[in-house]
Amino acid sequence: LADQPESPSKTQIHDPDATTDAAASVKQPTGQSALPSKSSTTPAPDPLLTPGRPGFLESITQSRNDNAFTRLPSSTSKDTNVGSIFDHGINQLSDSSSDSSSASSSTSSSSFVDSPHSLTDYPQLPPAHHLHVYATKHNTHITLTNPVRDPIISVSCGTIGFRKAARGTYDAAYQLGAYVMGRIQQQGLLAKIQHLELVLRDFGPGREAVSKILLGSEGRNLRGRVVRVRDCTRLKFGGTRSKKPRRLG
């Protein structure tokens, strides 16, 4: 009798909270989850709306699709199938794109018609003669051609008496430019040359010399007829190997 536990007295008050805590502390069998406590008021998180959980991207896509078709006809009922909703959304998108394209085309056409400068505003210039200046570091070549590119005058520094290294100097190119201007006047070409295009090539001393001739007193008759100046210097992209640079001394 001494080893048996004492039975609770009839006057002991039963505590329901203590019974609940004792039942919750009992270890649950494997494979079964514990029942949620009645005192917890926080709802369980939705696995579809939690980043990193399976189905998160599908839920976002579904919400976007739901928002895309909010503008439904008034006669649409709850039992409308998904295909009709999809067709309605596609029709809305096509209508809006067609309206925007028509508006942009009308704007562009009106701006082209109403533009202050159209193709008919600029007069068409007659074909021009060409004055080619090929200025290398060793010589200067000047060629005057007609509008169909047939040569009329073609001279170089050797034509006026310069030899060897003297042909590559600035003075030789200057005298060559003055000689060409004199020949143009002597042959009566000023009446035929209504427009002139100056074509420059390479960067020898003759390039600047001929420019000075046209801007000086020798070129006063041709200076006002120049309608275009072009630089036709050839550029090499890769190409063959260049010559070995010359080294003196």
Explain this structure to me?
With 249 residues, the chain is an alpha/beta fold. The chain is 33% helix and 12% strand. It has a five-stranded mixed sheet, with helices on one face. The chain is elongated and about 100 Å long. About 7% of the residues have low confidence.
Topology:
Elements: H1 16-25, H2 56-68, H3 82-113, E1 129-135, E2 140-145, E3 151-156, H4 170-186, E4 196-201, H5 205-215, E5 226-231
Parallel strand pairs: 1-4, 4-5
Antiparallel strand pairs: 1-2, 2-3
Helix pairs in contact: 4-5
Q: Alpha-carbon distance between the termini?
A: 130 Å
Order of strands in the sheet with most strands: 3-2-1-4-5
Residue runs with pLDDT of under 50 for 5 or more positions: 68-78, 108-113
- Mean pLDDT across every amino acid position: 75
Strand content: 5-15%
Summarize the structure in short.
The chain is α/β, with parallel strands linked by helices.
Keywords:
249 residues, alpha/beta, single chain, 5-stranded mixed β-sheet, 33% helix
